[in-house]
Amino acid sequence: MTSERSRNAAIRRIQAWFAQFHWKWIGFLLGLGFLLTLSAFFARYWVGAQDFQQTFPWTALDKDDLAVVQSVAANVGTAFLTAGLFALFEPLLRKTVRAEAKSAASEAIGPVEQGLKKRLSSLEQQVAAAVESDIESQDNAIKAATENLTYPTMLALMREASKIRALHDDLIVTHATDPPEELALTFALREYEKTYDHHPIGTGYSLVLMAHSNQAAAIEQSEQVWGPGQDFSEVAHALILELAKEGHSIRSDIDWDLVSTRIVSTLATAIRSWRRDPDPHASQQSEEQHPARNSHVFHFGPIQ
Hints:
Helices cover 62% and strands 13% of the residues. It is α+β, with helices and mostly antiparallel strands.
C-alpha cells in the first residue's frame, strides 16, 4: 500500500514538472520569436551603421543587404512564433482531433454494434429456448415415470439424467430391506454398440437392475436386464430368483412399491440438484416457521 502511494506521488510530481516545463518552453519560443520578428524592423539601423562596421557579420554587409537581413529575421522569428503557438494550442488541437476521431468511429461502428447486439440477443433467445426445452423434457420424463413406471418412461428418465451427467456412472443405489445392509439394489443405464453384419450402426441403451446381498453364501452381485416388453414386476421376480440361487431367501420382505418410488425420486432429485432448482420443502418449511415474514412477499408476474 505504501509503495503504491509512493509510486502515485512520483507520477504526480513528474506530471507537474512536465506541465511547468511545457509552459516555460512555450514562453521561450514565443518570446524568442517575438524578438526576432521585431528585430527585422530595426535591421536598417544596424546594417551599414558606423558602430557595427568593425564587428561580424556586419563587416560583410552594407545597406544593399538590408532586405535580406530583414527577411531572414522575420522568417526565423515567424518560425519560432509558430512553434510557440502550436505548442500552446497543441493540447486543445489534440483533444479536438481525438473527439472527432471518436465521433467518426462511433458513427462507423454504430450500425455494426447494433447489428451485433441484435444477433447476440437473438442468439441468447435461442439458447434460452433450447435450455427451457431441455428442462421441459426432463420434467416431462420425471412426471411420466412418477405416474406410470414402465420401461419406456424409466429409459427416458435415465437418459435425461445421463445427458447432463447427473449420476455417477449412470447408476443409483438404494436399500430394499430393513436393516439396509441386508439387500442393496442398483439401477443402471448401460450403453452398447448396435451392429449389423459385424458393422456398427449406432448406440443402444438397456436398463439393468442389480442386487447385492450380504446374506448370500458367496457375496456376489446378481443382475437382471430390463427388456422393452417387460414390466418392472417381472424384472423384480427374476432378480429374486437369481438371489435365491446365491442363498438369499426367496420370501424376502421387499417393498417393491417403495423401491420403485425411491428409484424415481432419487433420479428426480439428482436432475433437479444438477439444475440447482430451489428446494420446495425448504421453502414450505420456511413459510411454516415464519408466517408473518412470508406474508409480505410480493409476487412479480402472473400468479399461477
